[in-house]
Hints:
By secondary structure, this protein is mainly alpha-helical. It has helices spanning 4-34, 39-63.
Amino acid sequence: MLDSISQRRITAQLFELKSEHRDLDTAIALLDRNKPEDELSVKRLKKRKLKIKDQIAQLENLLIPDLNA
């Protein structure tokens, strides 16, 4: 079980990651619309976005209480 300080840190980190994830969504859409030929940059942004999504899932799992305990 996490203490309240750890929960607050994880929640703050989640907020930052979710914000970055949304920003990447916007950046990918703009780049795709304005420079559709720049596939490499779009792929890099999508890869970063996926990595952030995985980090978000891991942190959210830390906040879920262990039901077997």
